[in-house]
Amino acid sequence: MADWGGLSTEASNPSSEALDTLSSEEVVSLLLEEDRRSLEAAHRSREEIAHAAAWVAEALGAGGRVVFAGAGTSGRLGILEAAECPPTFGTDPDQIRAVIAGGREAVFEAREGAEDVRSDGVTAAENLGAGDLLIAVSASSATPFVLGALASARNNGARTILVTCTPPGGNSAVADLVLALDTGPEVLTGSTRLKAGSATKAVLNAITTAAMVRLGKVYGNLMVDLRPGSAKLRDRALRIIEAAGAVSREEAERLYEASDGEVKTAIVMASCGLGVEPSRERLRAAGGHVRKALAGRSAAEEGGATDFQK
Is 188's pLDDT higher than 50? Predict the structure, then answer.
């Protein structure tokens, strides 16, 4: 059994001991100040976070899978991260997934006891293997469901990362890489949906976004692999083509339609004056990186290797 009372995430925060006597504005101010401190704690782990992002990029680039696993708030944050990657970065939903203790129902209704079932965590990660990556999320670092998933993934040869909000220490052996954010006691004692959740969300955002930059799914600060599945995203896609290709809205719409909604292809078409297939060939030769595609000529155009293939 974990020593729950000894966890920093269960400790009392001295700054909020008189929380029930504060005005609403004072409560809000305290909560936001503690959130700021939690982000500072995350920033201190930036090297490890960058390391995690490199592992995500490596796994996805080689055709492997990335799975987030957690319980309660931590599990929901993993689900949010996995759900946002396909529309934002055009990733395959099967490559980036999430599992939560208690299953789908636990996303909308708390099932607190589910986190105590270690065997469910083992089952949730049993299909992972070499080339895959498990990102386990547990504010306390002691959640049985998460520890079971970590053990299962490691036993099957998958890489493992633990994102936690407790200080580094005894949890260093449970995963190949541990991101220990040490956010400290919560304003509302034990409620890790607060600053621990904020820090965790920021870290997961940083991991996936940095990984997608490495994979060529970003050009400048533009999400050039987005899936325009709504009117808003279609408009964004057109604005990206306009800006990156330096073309009119009318031309952006023409290129968008001609490329079947492939924003990267449309940008290369606009910038290089090429047709659809030559533009796609440039992108393939450049590993999907728009900047590299714009800087060189494809093998088909030159009859040999290009600068961005070397």
Answer: yes
